[in-house]
Amino acid sequence: EKGGYDHFMLKEIYEQPRAILDTYRGRLLADQGLIRMAGIDQNLEKFINANRIIIVACGTSWHAGLVAEYIFEDLARIPVEVEYASEFRYRNPVITDKDVLIAISQSGETADTLAAIKMAKEKGAFVFGVCNVVGSSIARETHAGAYTHAGPEIGVASTKAFTTQITVLSLIALKLAKEKGAMSESKFHEYLTELEGIPSKVEKTLESNKLIEEIAEVYKDSTNCLYLGRGYNFPVALEGALKLKEISYIHAEGYPAAEMKHGPIALIDEEMPVVVIATKKGHYEKVVSNIQEIKSRSGKIIAIVTEGDKSVKEIADHVIEVPETSEPMTPLLTTIPLQLLSYHIALMRGCNVDQPRNLAKSVTVE
Ligand code: M6R
């Protein structure tokens, strides 16, 4: 059932090229220059006329929502707010019938997300679901939706659900960008082709597994770890930290790289590994100077860089390369090494990778 892999988590990490492809199959029609998604097509007016989109989710799905915020605002010019479902439902938010709420949930059973949906519906919002489990409570409770076609995710640590959620949300953002006239026809085509190329780039990224295992060996006994990223890769930093803490029990925090100097930099010493996402484009120069600040305080740098990178290679302790892609799609690649890093570290520490302590696959109580 684990298809020859030692753990579900590893199997699911390796399934990502296929899962992403399954998710855009039949929807992304690059040769026709078209994105077809029934749930969006049938409710296009609601999305186009929306004052804003509110995204609610928990955990990893909330991180996918944050990536989506960058994509929707950047590409489709639609204002987006991303909320933890648990906070949103209890803080008497201002919601009107001009709002569109997108709920993201792998399991479709998360209690807080479900409650947030019910509340938004009562206040007149149009509610759209992005779920993985077909026929789940959230899929049934929403007005419309789009499934991720990741296949069953068994490992408690979410992996392929995250990348397929980003895939679905990218398709929606691109479709709306085109329908709203916020993006030129040629740019739209460029993104479609780029998205089509992601599965093989994920495949390529997975080839770093051996190198990542060696890096894991060096840092497996760390007690703390920082993850930094900017722009599209800030949520990836949060996700990397969540993955490490939940399966290896190492304390980890994700931060926007520029926030370092507002506090966390005080933590840096030779004992502190810092994982930095430093891909080309996306404030590259600024991230390089953030790396220098850490190095001058003896921190250890594990950098995720674009293939062929030179500047970061000179200063980082370890570099893991990912293929080049357009900036909004970098999270689909930069996430992969972080999943593998946490997997190997957890394994080396003798942790139960697929079923970490105190956690359940779906959180059906608030
Ligand atoms: O099923 P959902 O996507 O609604 O679950 C949300 C979170 O409980 C989930 O992502 C959790 O944070 C994972 N264990 C993260 O790996």
TrEMBL record:
Residues 43-182, 215-356 form the SIS domain. It is found in: Cytoplasm. It catalyses: D-fructose 6-phosphate + L-glutamine = D-glucosamine 6-phosphate + L-glutamate. Keywords: Aminotransferase, Cytoplasm, Glutamine amidotransferase, Repeat, Transferase. Its EC number is 2.6.1.16. The active site is at K361 (for fru-6p isomerization activity). One of its GO terms (molecular function) is glutamine-fructose-6-phosphate transaminase (isomerizing) activity. Catalyzes the first step in hexosamine metabolism, converting fructose-6P into glucosamine-6P using glutamine as a nitrogen source. Homodimer. This is Glutamine--fructose-6-phosphate aminotransferase [isomerizing]. The chain holds residues 250 to 615 of 615 of the full protein.
